[in-house]
Amino acid sequence: MKQFWKWVGIAVAGMIVVLGVGSWYLSANYKPLIKEKLAARIASSTDSLYRLHYDDLTINLLSGTVVIKNAELVSDSLRYQAMVKAKTAPEQRVNIQLHELTIENINLWRLIVHNDLRIRRLAVDTLALGLLNEPHSFAPVDTPSASLARRLQGTLKALSIAKIEVNQLHVHLSKIENGRTQTVRAKNSCFQARDFLVTEQAERDTNRFFYTRGIELTIPNFSYQIPESVYQINFEKLHVDTESKQALFSKIKLHSRISEEAYFRQDTENKALISLAWDTLHLKHIDFHALSKEGRLHVAHVDLKHGHASFKKDKRYQKDNVSKIGQAPHQHIMKLKPRIRFDRIFVSDVAVIYRQMSKKHQAEGAISFQDATGTITNLTNDTAQLKKDRYMRADLRAAIMGTGPLHARFGFDMLSTAGHHTYSGSLGKMQAPAFNSILRPLLNFEIASGNIRSIRFDMQGTDYKNWGELRFDYDHLKISVFRAPAKRSNRSKKGILSFLVNQMLVHDSNPDANEHYHIGRVQHTRVPEYSHFKTIWKSLFEGIVACAGINPKYVPEGE
């Protein structure tokens, strides 16, 4: 028995010597041949479009390790132009540069005996990946429709890599169309993939994403300028984990690249200037399989926390002269090209503010909703899902003007051709003068006093009209009317007019002095040039005016 193990030891030692010598021999004598063969293979498989170059290749058969340093895979621009003239050019090109590629623990025994390539680790240090898309007027060249697993058949039974790591990943995506180039850049990213397995069975595994059991991608300090728009998106960090089915954005923002005045001067569509920012945007239970196979984004749960949403208009430059029919939020969602589905979105601690500069009164008014919290459900343009439930719903609470407890519920019929929607809710106790920050600058009057006990509303609307009921309980309401700024720069009060308004035109309470309770029954005809939310405000204001007993013809017209 001892003799047997002696010979086994001698055999193993001999194999180690042979592999060590073989590694040295390959590295010393076959480097030029391997380089030549690789370059020829790349050229033949791409119709000479790509060239491969690297500084050094090291092979260690004993450890099953391959190291490539300073490698480049680049497209030949002259060859590409020749292919364009011949109408054989592909629409996509790729350029790759890497500092070092290390392949560790290649299982040579399984490769030779079972035709099964297994690798423990593939690591890349500093990878620059450039992808260019350039559509042509001619039909694109046919690319192999077979999957990676099927294309691998005949060469290998299986390809398995336990771990893939890319440190310092720089991605440059470009698209050239109609003479314009759109670019997306992501620098200093990190990429990891676990259990990469290429077989037909793995291809059908719904728990895998691009043949992997899990991918982790971290992108720091990202910025993207939205094409044909003044806006750009920034985030401090994005972390994606396909195994846990999550994506986490930190400090994400959407904002204008130009000044407010520049925006309003160039705007011809009467759109509000938007600024959005959140500390956290967390997507949970993402269906990565549907995303990779169907291009459909389905997220079961979203957390949107700690941020603000700001909207502004400037009537010194903007006019209500563009039709807003068909531009409600749910109608915009239905027009999106990619199929999306967010089952439930949780909103927490978000401040919403609308500001408007008045041309007539040369002042800026604002209304705010602090600490907005609630849920949005069934946000989707997937008609298969909408056949089961056609409504997107929002149930939100906020402190209006920072003091009044507001509860609002919205329902959007996603399949309605007329844009049907509902909105109902209530406002609790607050002081009415809190609204002066929007009333005085835009309508040139203010509430001198008044206690709001409650407001309750139940409304519906379409693209063309809004209707429903509003109940407004209040007392001690007094109005102050101001002179126009053109006559008095300080916009002093019109004392006599204010007195007459309070005595003759406005009920100081509801129920009124005669114990009659006034209900606002709204039948509002939409102005086509007014936005969806401005129309909602106008319909609610119509109900408030009715409850206060004011003749609509005496209500100052806003901008």
UniProtKB/TrEMBL annotation:
Alphabetically ordered keywords of this record: Membrane, Transmembrane, Transmembrane helix
Parts of the chain that traverse the membrane: 7-26
Superkingdom of origin organism: Bacteria
Protein's recorded name: DUF748 domain-containing protein
Organism per entry: Sphingobacterium suaedae
